[in-house]
Write a structure and sequence with these properties.
7-stranded antiparallel sheet; 25% strand; 34% helix; globular; alpha+beta; single chain; binds flavin-adenine dinucleotide; 489 residues
Length: 489
């Protein structure tokens, strides 16, 4: 933890700030930063900044615990410079300059990551990709090419206006970017039909940590050696900067059917969804809310109160969704509750006020998503709840199953607590209980948010022997260790 006094000239008066950086581990020598700026400024001009306000803006992402730091005037970590490249060549210039000087590089998309993944922990340069935002559609091939900084909502709207959809609708659709999706291996609310981003990526362009550009062009499928492109999906900025992505798109659905069901228990509802998937139906959205979450999100629906609500959206061509609706009617059991709970969800699904509203009240609030096969998912649900629920000062822990596969499901937990002492210490105690319970049940410690900085203590255990492979790949691609240093280690 480092404390420094920073100065900024603002409206002709000098303002002084005492700012604590919670995570900053090392400083970059000032002469190296100056040498970097000398190299890139002639090309980037004003798109390279060392202004204090810019450094503060890029000191954090959407990591909930950093809200508590901010309330005390603390930031995770300041970079030394921020750049806004507009082309792959400019990204290559920035990375090769930084790499030759041994300066850390942190790619930054929308900053909607919830685990501190984009925090410039070692100082250095933040590379904001949002000025790289061109889109090109290859309509006949059902392929869209998007630069990394394309905003998620903008891309989906662009496709919808042309009778298409990507089917990638994360709750962070508005603040996230295509590059961020690929870098974190994100997945959307409609994933049970459309898959995660990894199922959509057909090709990639990436600037390697040395500044070289590698392109993996899009094909319907190819068998040309190992699928190296996949190394970069989920690499969270540690193996290079993704600059362009080719994604497969689909026709915009002809028909949508909304259904909901009430069950007596979480287990019963999960089994019903398993039966539906085993019959070959592929709903776009399936969400099973446990008792607490049914009360939290659907309190207006009396028949569901105190029970377990499942909402389903089927979409696609009419013949297919009607056949799928028939499967649901036969297999779901429980009590059908119609369209209205699903409409309520559609109206409120981007509402995420809790963490910022609760933080000033001293409430620590966060979500943790994990996954397990059917044979362990119920055990994981109970073990996780028990482990987190018994952490001192936790107020509640609840869950819904948010993404489904023929092999299992994602459990998306929410917890809140009011710590008497340091919020960070409390937060880490909860995460430790959660991650241990997940590992003990053989679960995946992350389903779609990634590792970032919050999950790194458990990455080694989660990957087992794979951790050494990751370390070797990292050392081979990034010998100077400049790309997102601190991530995963
Ligand atoms: C309210 C809310 C809801 C959310 N809902 C979902 C959800 O439904 N599904 C889901 O998957 N996630 C969700 N998230 C998490 C987050 O939105 C995703 O992880 C998203 O993919 C991050 O994209 P971004 O552009 O904001 O990336 P950032 O937050 O800017 O970056 C995330 C990581 O990727 C790296 N990175 C970013 N761009 C690049 C690039 N071009 N090349 C290489 N590395 C890069 C960064 O260095 C960092 O490590 C949610 C977050 C919030 C705040």
């Amino acid at each position: 933890m480092e404390s420094r006094i920073l100065w900024e000239r603002s409206a002709a008066k000098i303002v002084s700030f005492r700012l604590t950086q919670r995570l900053r581990r090392e400083g970059v020598p000032a002469e190296r930063v100056s040498a970097f700026i000398e190299r890139v400024k002639p090309v980037l001009g004003e798109r390279c900044s060392t202004r204090f306000s810019d450094l503060v803006s890029y000191s954090r992402d959407y990591w909930p615990i950093s809200l508590h730091w901010l309330l005390k005037g603390e930031v995770p970590s300041l970079p030394d410079a921020v750049v806004w490249p507009e082309s792959t060549e400019e990204v290559a210039l920035v990375v090769s300059a930084a790499s030759s000087l041994g300066i850390p590089v942190y790619p930054y998309g929308g900053g909607s990551g919830v685990l501190g993944g984009a925090v410039p922990e070692m100082g250095g340069v933040v590379v904001d990709l949002k000025r790289m935002r061109s889109i090109r559609l290859y309509e006949e091939d059902f392929i869209v090419e998007a630069e990394a900084g394309v905003n998620g909502y903008y891309l989906e709207s662009y496709l919808n206006h042309r009778g298409l959809t990507l089917g990638q609708i994360p709750q962070s659709l508005y603040p996230s970017t295509v590059g961020g999706w690929v870098a974190t291996k994100a997945t959307g609310q409609f994933s049970t039909k459309y898959g995660g981003i990894e199922d959509m990526v057909l090709g990639l362009e990436v600037v390697l940590p040395t500044g070289e550009i590698a392109r993996f062009p899009p094909h319907p499928r190819s068998s040309t050696g190992p699928d190296l492109m996949r190394l970069f999906i989920g690499s969270e900025g540690a193996l290079g900067i993704i600059t362009r992505v080719w994604l497969r798109v689909q026709p915009y659905p002809e028909e949508r059917i909304l259904q909901s069901f009430v069950h007596e228990s979480f287990e019963e509802a999960l089994q019903a969804v398993r039966r539906v998937l085993a019959r070959g139906a592929k709903p776009a959205v399936v969400r099973v809310y446990d008792r607490i979450e049914t009360k939290r999100h659907f309190y207006a629906f009396e028949e569901a109160y105190g029970k377990v609500l499942t909402i389903v959206i089927l979409e696609g061509s009419s013949e297919v969704v009607r056949a799928e609706a028939g499967i649901l009617e036969r297999e779901m059991g429980g009590k059908p509750l119609g369209e209205e709970p699903v409409r309520h969800w559609l109206r409120t699904r981007f509402d995420v006020r809790e963490a910022p509203e609760f933080a000033p009240l001293g409430v620590v609030f966060d979500t943790i998503e994990v996954a397990a096969p059917w044979s362990r998912v119920v055990e994981l649900y109970h073990r996780f709840k028990e482990a987190v629920g018994s952490v001192d000062e936790v107020l509640f822990v609840s869950a819904h199953a948010s993404h489904f596969y023929l092999q299992g499901a994602c459990l998306y937990f929410t917890f809140a607590g009011v710590p008497r002492g340091d919020p960070t210490e409390f937060y880490n105690r909860v995460w430790d209980a959660a991650m241990r319970a997940t590992l003990e049940c053989g679960g995946a410690i992350s389903h779609h948010h990634g590792i970032g900085r919050q999950r790194r203590p458990w990455l080694r255990d989660a990957l087992g022997g794979g951790y050494a492979v990751l370390a070797r790949v990292k050392a081979a691609l990034d010998p100077r260790g400049v790309m997102n240093p601190g991530w995963g280690a």
